[in-house]
Amino acid sequence: MSILLDRNSRILIQGITGQQASFHTERMLEYGTKVVAGVTPGKGGRLHLGLPVFNTVEQAVRQEAPDISIVFVPPLAAADAVMEAAAGGLKLIVCITEGIPNLDMLKAKRFLAEKESSLIGPNTPGLISPGQGKAGIMPASIHRPGPVGLISRSGTLTYEAVYQLSQLGLGQSTAIGIGGDPIVGLKFVELLEMFKSDSLTEAVLMIGEIGGQAEEEAAEYLRQSDYPKPVAAYVAGLTAPKGKRLGHAGAIIEGNEGSAQDKVKCLAAAGVKIIENPAWIGQTVRELLAEKKGS
Amino acid sequence: MLIYEFQAKALLKELGVAIPAGYLAETADEVRMAAEKLGGQVILKAQILSGGRAKAGGIVVVDSSDQAELAASQLLHRKLITAQSGGRGLVVKKLLVEELVSPAREIYLSLVVDRKNEKLAALASPQGGVEIEELSKSSPQAIKKEYFCPERGLMSFQIRNLAYFLDLPEATFKTFLDYLKSLSTFFLLKDMKLLEINPLIVKTDNQLVAADIKMDFDDSGLARQPEISSLEDWSGLSAEEKKARSFKLNYVKMEGHIGCLVNGAGLAMATMDIIKLVGGEPANFLDIGGGVTEEAVGQAFEILASDQEVKACLVNIFGGIVRCDLVARGLVASARKFALNKPVVVRLQGTNETEGRKILGEANLPFYFVNDFEQAARLVVNLSQP
Q1: What is the ipTM for the molecules in this complex?
Q2: Minimal Cβ distance to A249: which of B220, B252, B263
Q3: Residue-wise burial string across B97-127, b where 16 or more C-beta atoms lie within 10 A, e elsewhere
Q4: How do residues B158-184 score in pLDDT, each as one tens digit?
Q5: Cβ contact (<8 Å) for A139 and B151?
Q6: Which of A76, A132, B220, B373 is the most exposed, fewest CB within 10 Å of its CB?
Q7: What pTM does this model have?
Q8: Yes or no: is domain A143-294 CATH 3.40.50.261?
Q9: Which residue of A76, A156, A187, A244 is the best one to mutate when testing the B interface, meaning the one whose CB has the most B CBs within 10 A?
């Protein structure tokens, strides 16, 4: 199997007629992903990339019954698009958009809490279950199917990690970017829980970075849950200065919280194999899998 | 986005929150005149975009207009290094000259986006004037937190909870309620991240005066906050930072000698880390972002190559949205323009990598290609050594 996304997933693209959305929808279709429709208010009734376009999510749901929506809507309208998808009953919402105001995300998350939908992102490359489907903007060619579940707060660093894994012949069950913003949907804890019972996943790789408490929460979860699969982690930002935001809105060491050193310490104490050097991601996961088979 | 204290105080005044009488001054002469108007005994406050000013000597109390002028001449145009300015000095260009408000008590008050709990919070402490982080460690019971949501805002009963916790005189209650109502509404309306009044002074006549204020706005909200955006001041930025900003590059200067040009924040951090791991020191964080143009790549490269501290560069690109050939073209055009004379280690992976390497390879410039991440870092560290 895989988590969240498989070959039967039916995908809706919100903001499908935009330039980035069009480009990436084509890449997803090429990969064999079942994209079934798009939404752009005011452009309903047309075909775009051979797909039906609707004015509202409600209409798209009625006609095409999608279960995952990918949001490519501009920042100031994106939180509303996420809520529209949740109101439409979409199981999973993947929000690619970067630069959504904090308060909008707070409102959207409160709205989602009353619905059945889960959110990935915002400011994420999305997720891919190699060989089954891709719901995002990552380059497909570096991925291959296999046993490693990957959860990351970064974009290109995830590609680097995937590249290292694939070079060593280690494929991925599902690779998920959880997003670089301060307020995001599913985080390490929820996704670790999903990978726990996924039959395809034999080991989990976490890519963290400075800022926030998501890695610390994951460490606490792992410490208490007697996790059945080996977990490795790399945390970026060892050299990051305090109080300076490094690119991602979420990547900032505020006060005494969020340093890479603290995160690494917590994860190590929870039994996670720490990857100190970002060039060793692939080989460390390989060793971890070998140890597991040997034991 | 942080704004200056004098800007924040102007906003407070519009909201009906009392602030000390004061004047903004840019010369020692102006400071003297302001001090005379305020009766001689005044406080001078350096206007820089950083906290920790008092410890850095940026806040001075004087007894007369003569003293004020003298102190101003020492403060103006000086560089202040605070605990929060990242080791760099911030030039003092303006001073806020204010009356001294004699406090009966000093309160801490703030509104903040609590990212861990994904809520908004109002914080109050009877121990104003101290750093809240230190207080939260030494005596957390001295801080009260009221969570609120963006839909309903901070409610009156929550403000009363804070007032009773602070043990405020009842004569101040109405003002306290009014202040927090309008501040919390403003906070939500203006996409704020932090609004901190420290201290809020309770005067002997039961007036409440905001003696110091910090306002930080969510950068992502600025697109819909023209009034707040107009307060942004680039004059404290270096020439490189200004260039980076105008080309939408995420650039942070560091102490080392190895320039880094990377796409993506996570990979950029990892690149800095690996340089450090193999014995070097990064000169900067630089994420060129996903929507970068050829010209912006060139500008980014120029920022690094023209930096005297930078002895060698590492270009680390994992093409996804960003195409390697676009990056290569930007690098070559820029390197030709300023006659590149520093070694540059290049690692190109992903979208159009072959084309990118070809463009760089044919340029006849000091580029070194390495595929392996760690080898690239080791090579650039070696090349940076004299």
Answers
A1: 0.94
A2: B220
A3: bbbebebebbbbbbbbbebeebbbebbbbbb
A4: 999 999 999 999 999 999 999 999 999
A5: no
A6: A76
A7: 0.93
A8: yes
A9: A156
